[in-house]
Design brief:
This protein is of the alpha/beta class. The protein contains 7 helices and 8 strands, in the order βββααβαβαβααββα. The protein is globular, with a radius of gyration of 19 Å. The structure holds farnesyl diphosphate.
Length: 265
């Protein structure tokens, strides 16, 4: 038995959701490490970059499904500060892919009320991509649907160094006392400012690492690892992850367990 997902007007992504899934206990913020694109392509005798192209489709359908489900934020790891060390051809392909996807999808993102933000050291990206990113962020800034964060040239350690420097600058300028530095002031200097921390991290392709992703923000996230390669990550894989999340007892360092519904997410 399954239920039909209640969808808004123009939803083409409505799905049958599993009976066990409680729509009132979904994670408010979902983070994904989209891994396995290269292996997906290799398994099909295709060049690695075809895996990235297929990965975009998986990301689009995940975003739409999350939006349909009422999940408030989706943060995806698209390009790490370490990914520059890949062959130049692959890096160039990815930069061009980001540009094309933005050009092609911006209109749909706008009409679906998605608010898109790119998080990372954007000034190192090709200028044309920077312009497209700035335009997309500006045009969707007031949208009221899901917050879609694309971590691009992002590294968790670098983000923490950047935040520390900013706090040090504010102290040097006399704007802030050292004693005022706490978790809130530090979090306010992160790229994710204004976003609640992720409740659930999904990593595909069976790898069990954080890989420098959202080091601060994932402090209390539940982690779901699936063997599925990212391009094959569809509704069933997402529902499995959500069911797994709902089976967890979140303690946040205390002794009394908190089930996801008690968090109001
Ligand atoms: C990791 O797989 C994936 C990436 C480094 C790129 C992911 C990017 C996308 C799916 C494009 C997103 C586009 C936009 C505009 C948001 P891998 O290559 O490391 O896979 P492997 O471990 O099998 O080699």
């Amino acid at each position: 038995m399954s239920r039909q997902l209640a969808t808004s007007a123009d939803q083409v992504h409505s799905r049958c959701i599993p009976d066990g899934l409680d729509l009132s206990k979904l994670p408010g913020h979902l983070a994904v490490i989209m891994d396995g694109n290269g292996r997906w392509a290799k398994a099909r005798g295709l060049p690695r970059v075809m895996g990235h192209r297929a990965g975009v489709e998986a990301l689009k359908s995940t975003l739409r499904l999350c939006n349909d489900l009422g999940i408030r934020a989706l943060t995806a790891y698209a390009f790490s500060t370490e990914n520059w060390s890949r062959p130049g051809e692959e890096v160039n392909f990815l930069m061009t892919l980001f540009e094309r996807v933005l050009q092609r999808e911006l209109h749909a993102l706008e009409s679906e009320q998605v608010r898109i933000r790119f998080l990372g050291d954007l000034e190192d990206l090709p200028l044309r991509l920077q312009t497209l990113i700035a335009d997309a962020m500006r045009r969707t800034a007031d949208n009221r649907g899901i917050h879609f964060n694309v971590c691009t040239n992002y590294g968790g350690r670098r983000e923490l160094v950047r935040a520390s420097r900013r706090l040090a600058e504010r102290v040097a300028l006399g704007e802030l006392e050292v004693s005022q530095i706490d978790e809130n002031t530090l979090a306010a200097e992160l790229y994710t400012v204004g976003e609640l921390d992720p409740d659930l991290l999904i990593r595909t392709s069976g790898e069990r690492r954080i890989s420098n992703f959202l080091l601060w923000q994932l402090a209390y996230a539940e982690i779901h690892v699936t063997d599925v390669f990212w391009p094959d990550f569809g509704a069933d894989a997402l529902f499995s992850a959500l069911l797994d999340y709902q089976s967890r007892c979140r303690r946040f360092g205390g002794l009394d367990g908190v089930t996801p519904d008690a968090l109001g997410s």
